[in-house]
Amino acid sequence: MTRNDQTADDQPRRQALLDALRGSDAPLGVTELADRLDVHPNTVRFHLDALATQGLIDRRLEEPTGRGRPRTVYTPHPGMDRGGRRQYDLLAKILLGQLSTSPDAGAAAEAAGRNWGGYLVEHIPPSRQPGVAEATQRLSAMMTDLGFAPEPDSESTGRIRLRHCPFLELAEEYSSTLCPLHLGLMRGALTEIRAPIAATSLEPFAEPDACIVHLSPAHSPDVDTGPHQHRNRST
Length: 235
Known about the structure:
This protein is of the alpha+beta class.
């Protein structure tokens, strides 16, 4: 176990150290904290190192008042406690639930995805036009970084299989909103790099283990890249 790993037994001790520092009018050293908590100084140092690494406390050398090495003292880091549990899944459900009540929820999600896709994709010099292979590679690289595990379809160059969804549980409940956002990510990325291909549609859960992205020439007259090209498996 590394020095900053935390077990269930560590949490009460570290919380006690934080409480002692927050309740003190002056910075405290290792010896003072060890006396207050009735624990060994080495145990205090171990937990203080972890708390400092987590950004929960600050340490500094005290101005020397005589001979000898200056003392290291600790104070609680100003601001809200950054420890504890996060509820990002709940936040995502709240926001997606609210967005899904909008008449144009899919279009709004797709537009947001476009903006972020243009930001997340690896850019290319403005003087160079990528070919189909490079554009597909850059799109796949972005989707790999995001955790979608893209895989070119061996039977069609115009399809990419997404083998993993980093938001699977949310997508199962809010596919009509979240899947257009994913499609927008790809559209925004391809537009940003001036790709000769476009993401025309996304079939969520088209296969038991994959969603399918359909790609077409960007300037084909029969290609509609508007926000309503999200296709659900049930349609």
